[in-house]
Amino acid sequence: MLLPVLLLGFVAYGLSIFTYVRAQKTLGAAKTSAFYAIAPFAGAFLSFVLLREPLTVNFGVALSGMTVGTYFVIRDTLS
Question: CA 67 to CA 55: how far, in whole Å?
């Protein structure tokens, strides 16, 4: 059971670093940061679709915080 978990971690971490560095090289730091800032929204969306997570007050507060933070990152990036 440990080997599949280690393999998953190695592949997931390795692919994330590879794609991030590739994006930095291809898109530049500013655009990569803007795209990276929207990643939590993709995770939240997938949690609703795949895991059928309920909408709660805590989720609303967290989503508001993510939205404000993303706005500032993208605004600063595109200025």
Answer: 16
By C-alpha distance, which of 20, 62, 18 is closest to 41? 62
Q: Give yes or no for a contact between 36 and 20, defined as CB atoms under 8 angstroms apart.
A: yes
Q: How many CB atoms are located within 10 Å of the residue 41 CB?
A: 13
Q: Tell me if the pTM is above 0.70.
A: no
Q: Which residues contact 24 (CB under 8 A, 6 or more apart)?
A: 32
12-59 tens-digit pLDDT: 888 888 988 999 999 888 888 778 877 888 888 888 899 998 888 988
Alpha-carbon separation of residue 3 from 10, 15, 18, 57, 76 (angstroms) = 10, 18, 22, 38, 42
Look up residue 19 and give its amino acid: T
Both structure tokens of 45: 């969306």
Strands (E) located in the chain? none
